[in-house]
Amino acid sequence: MATTDESIYSIQNVSRRYGSLAALDDVSLDIRRGEWISIVGPSGSGKSTLMNIMGCMDSPTEGTVLLEGDRLDKMGEPELANVRRNKIGLVFQQFHLVQHLNAVENVELAQYYHSMPDSQEALDALERVGMKDRATHLPRELSGGEQQRVCVARALINHPDVILADEPTGNLDEVNERIVIDFFHQLHDGGTTLIVVTHDAEVAAQGERQIILEHGRIAREVIGVDGTPTKGQKNRDEAE
Ligand code: ADP
Ligand code: MG
């Protein structure tokens, strides 16, 4: 089936099996370019498995995954790595910063795969997340919220079409959660597609659509919460 021009991801009948366990079980999902999707569901329901497949870190055992029309499920590691570097920005709950590199070096590191590292671009990315004055700090000299903002800068450095964030606020206090979410709103307003796994109802409600996973399947989809449009949806409506 061809993907529409509007779809950034088109996922059809995807399963990911580990022996007899189906971490994902016949999942189909289309994501519009520029959409903000929240993925929620109990622990073990397949959220990270789905993110890893969309993020080119894992492949399905069945089904097709199209990113901008390209078949990710047919790709081997060199090709997947290329897509990861060029199209996708990843944000993790546990940050995954290199501990002996400072903030700006961690951001530059993501450019090594792409082009010659450019400190000015890395500093600009840190400035966007309000972290320029911490550029020479090591991860251990930064709070959790500051580390996550460095991770967001790292995710942005190659100008990705899509940001995939797996529990991005899971280790943050409320103030830093707010900072990261406000920044996601800026990205969304700028047209970036956001796919965010979260346990937090407030964070989930920022998305235009919530996908609820249970036992590896999409149990239901919610547009907004309790029939109320989500904040992302409201922004879209106001813009129209
Ligand atoms: P979630 O992120 O929603 O907590 P996951 O996607 O991490 O769930 O996991 C879904 C299911 O797949 C769980 O039962 C988990 O134990 C299983 N699983 C995930 N990764 C592996 C793996 N590498 N080997 C075996 N089972 C796995
Ligand atoms: Mg998970």
Q: How would you describe this structure to a colleague?
A:
By secondary structure, this protein is α/β, with parallel strands linked by helices. The protein has one domain (33-59, 77-239): Rossmann fold (3-Layer(aba) Sandwich), CATH 3.40.50.300. The chain contains eight helices and ten strands. Helix 3 packs across helix 4 and helix 4 (119-128) crosses helix 5. The radius of gyration is 17 Å and the shape is globular. The model is unreliable at 229-236 (pLDDT under 50). Bound molecules: adenosine-5'-diphosphate and magnesium ion. Magnesium ion is lined by residues 47-48. Residues 47-48 line the site of magnesium ion.
Question: What does the secondary structure layout of this molecule look like, with pairings?
Answer:
Blueprint lengths: L6 E12 L2 E12 L3 E5 L6 H8 L7 E6 L2 E2 L5 H11 E5 L10 H10 L6 H10 L15 H13 L5 E5 L7 H16 L3 E5 L3 H4 L4 E6 L2 E6 L8 H9 L1
Parallel strand pairs: 3-8, 3-9, 6-7, 7-8
Antiparallel strand pairs: 1-2, 1-4, 4-5, 9-10
The protein binds adenosine-5'-diphosphate and magnesium ion.
Adenosine-5'-diphosphate (ADP) binds next to strand 2 and helix 1.
